[in-house]
Amino acid sequence: MNLKLNLVSLVPILCASRLDRLNGVSSPTATPVSKRQTTSFPVFNFTQPLDHFTDTGFTWNQRYFVNSRHYKPGGPVIVLDGGETSVTDRLPYLDTGIVDILANATNGLGVILEHRYYGAFFVTSQYRIYSKQPPTPANFITNVKFAEIPEDLTAPHTPWIYYGGSYAGARSAHMKVLYPDIVFGSIASSGVTEAAISNWGYYDIIRRAAPANCSAQFITAVKEVDNLLSNPETNSKVKSFFGMPGLTLDADLTSFFAGPLGAWQSKNWDPAVNSNSFSNNCAAMGNPSNATIATFQGFIVNNATWNLATIVNKCFGTLNDTDFQQTDLSQTGRLWQFQVCTQWGFFDVTCYPKFVDVEYSSKICKQAYPPGEFFQVPALPNIEDVNKLGGFNIAHDRLAIIDGEVDPWRFDCPHSFISPTEFREDTPLRPFKLIPNAVHHYDENGLADHTQEPPEIQAIHQQEVNFVKGWLADFKQRH
């Protein structure tokens, strides 16, 4: 992960789920990068065993796309991890984005590989297998035969450069740590390598990075609604004011306010990909003032609270468990949520920790995944499964860490302001780069004419080309 609150909301625009915000591409609050026109690429399937540790007799087809336009014999393979969405959402990265940029610079073969639990052939029979299946991409890297290429490009004879953004960025870092002999180099862009039960820093980064007037308005509204909910005389009235008179839980109201803030993650430097949702929400919040407005419910609010109520007016509660227990194959939102509930966490306490706490944010895990015959979701996710691979401190030769300065997910990346290695050294062998004014994996997409990209995007793309070329020169010296 794109991943944030409200996890349990059902209205798409303002109450985007944590899954959708970590996924970014498929987020209802984001303009997908796939909106850009993309060249058609051939699609292939690689046969994988269902279980890499036990012979079940079952296999599945892992989908991947190939860009061979720049390939010359002796070149590397640049593979992008599709992450928690359909691999087709990543095709622009194969065409004009980071995969094409690196392949063009190195005479490489570009590949985008679909995750085993997302897209066309996600494995549905055993969700629990996920946590024990890191060999899936490794099996691909060491055994794939490319139909378009006569040479054997499997690792370790061919250098593979593994790239991922967000959740896939963490996977990219983990691949280098787990399989250093076959993954020659990795780039983790906005890689959320530090799993956490509470993800309070997400909204704090937005608060600090947003325009001052906008942050001030949200803070004013937050404080006022907090006071109104804490007062028994106005508790039910403020819920009616926001159009939700039937809510029982105070947190069901306050969690909805995260939607307008979470739209920050949908910002992008490319106008064709960028979402204006956050800017529009800021405009709707108006400017700070002492103006007050009398409500029909009989109490007075600041203009900031009034404006917030005009934005948040179509969401509803989270008490109906059956809403989360649909298990047909169209319920793709359950896929990432299962990973959240079992391993990754990232539960929000938002700007309303008094109401929206870990207990509230994690209750969807109990609602969506009641105890089954073969598996029971833990009371809290086992984040140690992730963090034992390095967490904030994850590092390896030829592992590049690329983060965005104002990315809300920076809180869970090695550049986090609570990371003990936030200011580690940036070297060609272990690049550690922070893109100025960047949000979520800003280096992943690109333009056909790279000279039209913003200076900071041109700069990071060139830096990535430079250190990958250096890595490949080292490979040639060794072989």
Describe this structure in words.
The two termini are 35 Å apart. The strands form 3 sheets. The chain has an 8-stranded mixed sheet, with helices on both faces. The chain has a two-stranded parallel ribbon with strand order 7-10. The protein has a two-stranded antiparallel sheet with strand order 8-9. It is built from 17 helices and 12 strands. The protein has 479 residues and is α/β, with parallel strands linked by helices. It is globular and about 75 Å long. It folds into 3 domains: 42-196 and 386-478, Alpha/Beta hydrolase fold, catalytic domain (Rossmann fold), CATH 3.40.50; 210-311, no CATH class; 321-382, no CATH class.
| Total DSSP helices | 17
Question: Biggest β-sheet: count, sense, barrel?
Answer: 8 strands, mixed
Assembly context of the chains: single chain
**How are helices and strands ordered from N to C?**
HEEEHHEHEHEEHHHHHHEEHHEHHHEEH
CATH topology of the largest domain: Rossmann fold
Tell me, what is the CATH class of the largest domain?
Alpha Beta
Roughly how many Å is the radius of gyration? 23 Å
Please tell me the overall pLDDT: 82
Number of domains: 3
Number of strands: 12
As a percent range, the share of strand residues is 5-15%
Overall 3D form: globular
- CATH homologous superfamily of the largest domain - what is it? Alpha/Beta hydrolase fold, catalytic domain
Provide the spatial order of strands within the biggest beta sheet: 1-2-4-3-5-6-11-12
Runs in which pLDDT lies below 50 for 5 or more consecutive residues are 1-31, 123-133, 314-321
**What is the architecture of the largest domain at the second tier of CATH?**
3-Layer(aba) Sandwich
Work out the helicity level.
25-40%
**Class inferred from helices and paired strands:** alpha/beta
**Cα distance, first to last residue?**
35 Å
GO molecular function: dipeptidyl-peptidase activity; serine-type exopeptidase activity
Pfam families: Peptidase_S28
Organism: Mycena metata
Protein name: Peptidase S28
